[in-house]
Amino acid sequence: MEAKRIRKNTLSNLLGCIILKLYYNGDPCICTEYDTRAIKGLSDELFIECERLNDTGLDLLNKDILLLINNAYQELSEFKTLHEELRTRLKIQKEKKTNPIPPNLRVKIDKQLKGWREDDENYFVSTKGSEAVIESIKEQPCVAVTGSFGIGKTAIIHNAALLMRLNGYIVVPVTDPLEIKKYNHPIEKNLFVVDNFCGINDLEEEELEAWNNCAVEFDEKCKLLVSCKLQGETAIFHAAVRNNPRMIETLIHNKADANICTHEGRSPLYEACLCGYNRIANILLISGANCHTITTTGDTPLHAACRNGHTFIVNELLQRGADLSISDKNGHTPLDLARLNEHHDIVQNIMRHSKTK
């Protein structure tokens, strides 16, 4: 009988062949009747194998053992790989079931998203602006939609969030930065939505710090979509008015635009020059703030600094090429204002600067 016909399991056959091998010493030989019966007591299949060896000897057995060892090693390797794959799948399934959002809050969010969907289907009209927001949130980890009251910022971010949900994102409306860290799913893709980021009033420094320190790294699997009112006075403008250099630095670090002006044309730099906030003026100028903006009354930041006698700021503006020839609505240049208000040191500095040009 051929050995292939009796092999039902590689590992068991390997063990059987090794046992048979132990009944022989040295060169190929023939089993004795006593040996044969002893082997038969172990297994019928081993007895048949022993009978086969009476004709074939040990050379074939040695080859069989080597082949079975190789097959067993391959099987063990495959089992090990399969085991690791199953462990990984089990871990992923457990983490997916471990949703950080409590069940009661999930129900509330589902109702909220249902309301968004109904409004979206009944009232939303797609525009180039809304399409740009969708493309941006697909490519960027954080997107802010700004604008004046009543232009549809909320509808735009709700529409974008619903479309991202269709793309496999868990959409979670939040109002507090701590909720992002708390409800961020470790496996699934998350999109956190903040409507009216700055609130009814302006964003306070404490609130900004809380968002800045939320300890969540936004990336492809954790995105942030916010709407923020823009009423002509930005957060960086208010930080300049309040002489808050720390907040200015935080906003600039987070890519805030320092050149957005109010309806009257007053920029954050203009406010710093007007009030004599040396550090804020310096921070804004280093970050690339425009020193040539003009208000509705014809004032530039240099006009404001010269009128109020802020020598340090005047020198900083002159070094960055501030225009001395612009006149305000009364026909006064910055030099005229310095003379009218008897700021002699500023007059001398402007005169020296003009000679060096």
UniProtKB/TrEMBL annotation:
Which source organism?
Mytilus edulis (Blue mussel)
Where does the record place a coiled coil?
69-96
Name used for this protein in its record: Novel STAND NTPase 3 domain-containing protein
Which residues does UniProt assign to the signal peptide?
none
One GO cellular component assignment for this chain's record is: BRCA1-A complex
Q: Which domain of life is it from?
A: Eukaryota
Keywords linked to the UniProt accession:
ANK repeat, Coiled coil, Repeat
ANK repeats by residue range: 231-263, 264-296, 297-329
Report the record's Gene Ontology biological process terms: protein K6-linked ubiquitination
> From the UniProt record, which GO molecular function terms apply?
ubiquitin-protein transferase activity
Cross-referenced InterPro entries, in alphabetical order? Ankyrin_rpt (IPR002110), Ankyrin_rpt-contain_sf (IPR036770), nSTAND3 (IPR049050)
Limits of the Novel STAND NTPase domain: 124-215
Alphabetical list of PROSITE patterns matching this protein: ANK_REP_REGION (PS50297), ANK_REPEAT (PS50088)
